[in-house]
Amino acid sequence: MKKMNSKQVFNNASRESGLTNISNKQTNLRRFTMKKLMLVAALVLVFAGMSFAQDHASSTATINANIQKGLTISVSNAILDLGNLVAGTTPAAVSPLSGTVPAFTVTGDGGHVVNVSYDATVTLNGPSSATMTFNSDFKGDASGTQGSAGAVGATVTLSGASPATGNYYFWLGGNVGSIDPAQAPGSYTGTFHVSVNY
After folding, report:
1. In the 3-class helix/strand/coil scheme, how is the chain assigned residue by residue?
2. What kind of fold does domain 72-197 have according to CATH?
3. Domain locations in the chain as residue ranges
4. What is the pLDDT of residues 112-139, one digit of tens each?
């Protein structure tokens, strides 16, 4: 085995020491780089969280609903018979305030306002395309008293109070005015419409 002199030993030791120092420097550089990367990653996460918090907002709204009883309308005495009329005369009007006339009953949520629409006039169709005009006289009352019924406007108020059931009552009368002397003889008929909604 070859013996090394002291100079060679020193040089070898210096070389190994230099390699160790280089290795330590590289290790330290790697550690420093890793710390910097971890710090940057942490900052990115923090700023991302802050950005999310700043971009997010929420609010609420309240939703209300009120259920009403459905409206129904029924009719009794559904035919208004004007009887035998004579051409060239002016027959008396049929009063809605007395006698047996078509009677309508509206039923719904008590105390509520109801919109009403009805035919002010009805075309009565007769033989050979002949026609006459019926002028309706439509009266109503919340108590159901026919004799004290009044004129019907665009709205009426049902009797009672919610949630109990309420009613309103209508009666139909009317007239055909003066009949033309040349009015074609025969049977005439027409249909009166009434509708209600909240």
Report:
1. CCCCCHHHHHHHHHHHHHHHHHHHHHHHHHHHHHHHHHHHHHHHHHHHHHHHHHHCCCCCCCCCCCCCCCCEEEEECCCCCCCCCCCCCCCCCECCCCCCCCEEEEEEECCCEEEEEECCEEEEECHHHCEEEEEEEEEEECCCCHHHCEECCCEEECCCCCCCEEEEEEEEEEECCCCCCCCCCCCCECCCCEEEEC
2. Immunoglobulin-like (2.60.40)
3. 1-58, 72-197
4. 999 999 999 999 999 999 999 999 999 9
User: How far apart are the C-alpha atoms of 166 and 69, rounded to whole Å?
Assistant: 10
Residue-wise burial string across 57-91, b where 16 or more C-beta atoms lie within 10 A, e elsewhere: eeeeeeeeeeeebebebeeeeeebebeeeeeeeee
Specify the pTM: 0.70
Q: Dig out the tokens for 168 from the structure.
A: 């309103």
